[in-house]
Amino acid sequence: MSNEIADGLLLASGYLDQSQQAALLDDIRKVVAAAPLYRPVMPRFGKPFSVTMSNCGPLGWLSDKSGYRYQAHHPVTKEPWPEIPASVAKIWRDLSGYDGPAECCLINYYADGAKMGLHRDENEEDFSAPVVSVSLGDEALFRFGGAVRKSPTKSVRLLSGDVLVMAGASRLNFHGVDRIYPGTSNLLRDGGRINLTLRRVTMR
Ligand code: MD3
Ligand code: FE
Question: Whose CA is nearest to atom 3 of ligand 1?
Fold first, then answer.
């Protein structure tokens, strides 16, 4: 079931069934075995994120004391990011409507109590490409607003297997994750939530 919850913001509820979710998770476990989750810090003051992160694909998104950016290697291991698994690349191909592969798959892990403040995804080169986001594991309360931080917001619960596509008018809108709901999914043995955010960045 696919539903336009705001202009250009498409929610494909239950897009992945149980076995597809399990297969995706297997592939992501291999990625994080090679490129471990690490805890980024905010630019300037270095406050740690509550979310831990990794990436796959030619470019990874990261945050550290000097700012937000994309780079080709893991900040801790210094190794190039692993390839985007075929299972993940297929979701981009099927839903992005974009002629070309995603260059970044950001992996966010939310343990109990983790959240992500209201922000815009604006570090990419090509805003004509959508952002495609996959939810796995515990349910999350996702909040989305408008073009400015003060715009009114709405909230929706994201469930394991849901996919969001942010295109057109919603591409640069504010959004965040207010909380996750522990114990709402059996997918991850140790609980929590994984979010995969696929972006075309376009390397110069
Ligand atoms: C709406 N992640 O990694 S994904 C992020 O669930 C991020 O972990 C959240 O925001 C998460 O940057 C939300 C859904 C999402 C991503 C990008 C968007 C929604 C968006 C861009 C524009 C509008
Ligand atoms: Fe975002």
Answer: 197
